[in-house]
Specification:
Blueprint (H helix, E strand, L loop, with lengths): L8 H6 L8 E4 L6 H12 L6 E6 L2 H10 L7 E5 L5 H7 L5 E7 L4 H5 L25 H7 L2 H10 L6 H14 L5 H11 L2 H6 L6 H11 L2 H12 L3 E11 L2 H15 L8 E3 L9 H6 L7 E7 L1
Parallel strand pairs: 1-2, 1-4, 2-3, 4-5
Antiparallel strand pairs: 5-7, 6-7
Helix pairs in contact: 7-8, 7-11, 8-9, 12-13
Bound molecules: S-adenosylmethionine (SAM).
The site of S-adenosylmethionine has 21 residues, from helix 2 and strand 2.
Length: 304
Amino acid sequence: MDSHIPVLLREVLSFLEPRPGMRILDGTLGLGGHALALLQAAVAAGIPEASLLGLDRDGQALALACRRLLPFGERVQAVRAAFSEAAEILKSRGWERVDFALADVGTSSLQLDSPERGFSFLRDGPLDMRMDQRQEETAERLVNTASFSRLRRILAEWGEEPLAGRIAGAIVEARAREPILTTARLARVVESAYPARRRAAARNHPATRTFQALRMEVNSEVSELKAFLRAVVPNLAPGGRIAVISFHSLEDRLVKYFFRDEARDGLRSPALRVLTAKPVEASPEERAANPRSRSAKLRVAEKL
Ligand SMILES: C[S@@+](CC[C@H](N)C(=O)[O-])C[C@H]1O[C@@H](n2cnc3c(N)ncnc32)[C@H](O)[C@@H]1O
């Protein structure tokens, strides 16, 4: 199951400026697609000594990525860790000078395609959605214990779901009859809250936004992304670059404003120069070949 196609790969590589002894941080190793291509690009540019530190909080993904990156031997270090641990890891490994950092946030095909991970309403499985399976909070716990108002807020905020209140109400009602334990049952509950007219007119499955919102909450995705940006920028070498691919407008805005604030001449001198005035999006060819790329937005900034 290592069919994850790295998104915006050519575009990411176009921002890589190979430098002797360069250090690459991949915050979302996933199945190692971007990592492999970045290392290969460094080798092709005459930097065979380039090294890569890869993080992922998904143990399964990390094991697969390590296998794929084996040919690079000790030049690759892979750590099971979340963005919120990145600052500590960079410090403890003496990686306080990173030349290129990447975060490709969101779910991998490994997570989406494995029914037992409970990420997808297209495949029936336990309501799990944890990227890090050591974590206690699961989607099942959230769905069966969160108050109506917390559920409504999660669906409205992370899912931008216009029917957040109706869906939260349907969940509370359904779980009072019997706990909601599977992705298929949750999908049916959400569907039942959708008026038939809206269901017929919708482009996506009615549960799309709800599943996205719950996944973002279970994995604290927005606060994690903030932690990544805060950890990495101070650890970039002068001229080093940070590239972030996001799939949600909230996350894209977060990156945009973070970069903009760090690039502003204010009380302190600016730390970054923004290299992408507008986010880079997938080409029509990539969109056709990989539907996941359709919502991807890449922003890149350079350390001054
Ligand atoms: C879209 S996939 C990355 C795919 C990868 N770029 C590739 O080419 O194979 C995102 C990965 O990031 C991981 N991830 C997401 N948020 C994370 C976080 N806060 N900390 C660590 N890993 C995270 C997920 O577990 C997932 O494996």
